[in-house]
């Protein structure tokens, strides 16, 4: 019988929104893509930019800034779409940039503080305090729940 090894680190994809750092578990990320052509879909929530065709799969795209209530994303050369998978549904999250995969030690992860900037606290599950970097760990379930 194998010993159960306690997880001491969480691999996370770190991305930026409005100068702040956020993270999601690498296990939920399928791909990170440059911005592709987005087809608008009428009568959808304001945070849904539209859909893309990624290798034959139609994927809804969420403007994460809009979803968090901190503005609208401005597409630049660094803008990325993080394709995540939740309950067999793939969703793209538009972020300012995504360039880090880091291991966050469990002891660095703290419960979310009472006030998390201006971002709606419901979307933040925890905060990682890493060498003076504060990284907000997103709750993907809350972000994509309207689409499931």
Automatic annotation (TrEMBL):
**One Pfam family, short name:** CheW
Please name the GO terms of the biological process aspect recorded for this protein, alphabetically. Answer: chemotaxis; signal transduction
GO cellular-component terms in the record? cytosol
Q: Which PROSITE patterns match?
A: CHEW
Please give the SUPFAM superfamilies that the UniProt record associates with this protein: CheW-like (SSF50341)
SMART domains membership: CheW
CheW-like domain location is 9-148
InterPro entries noted in UniProt: CheW, CheW-like_dom_sf, CheW-lke_dom
Name the source's superkingdom: Bacteria
Q: What name does UniProt use for this protein?
A: Chemotaxis protein CheW
């Amino acid at each position: 019988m194998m010993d159960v090894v306690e997880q001491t680190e969480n691999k996370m994809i770190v991305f930026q929104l409005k100068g702040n750092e956020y993270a999601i578990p690498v296990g939920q990320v399928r791909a990170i893509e440059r911005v592709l052509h987005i087809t608008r879909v009428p009568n959808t929530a304001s945070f849904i930019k539209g859909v893309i065709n990624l290798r034959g799969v139609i994927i809804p795209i969420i403007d994460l800034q809009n979803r968090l209530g901190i503005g609208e994303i401005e597409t630049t050369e660094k803008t990325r779409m993080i394709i995540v998978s939740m309950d067999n549904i793939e969703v793209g999250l538009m972020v300012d940039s995504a360039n880090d995969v880091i291991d966050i030690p469990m002891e660095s992860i703290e419960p979310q503080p009472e006030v998390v900037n201006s971002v709606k606290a419901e979307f933040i599950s925890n905060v990682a305090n890493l060498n003076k970097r504060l990284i907000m760990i997103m709750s993907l379930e809350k972000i994509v729940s309207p689409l499931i």
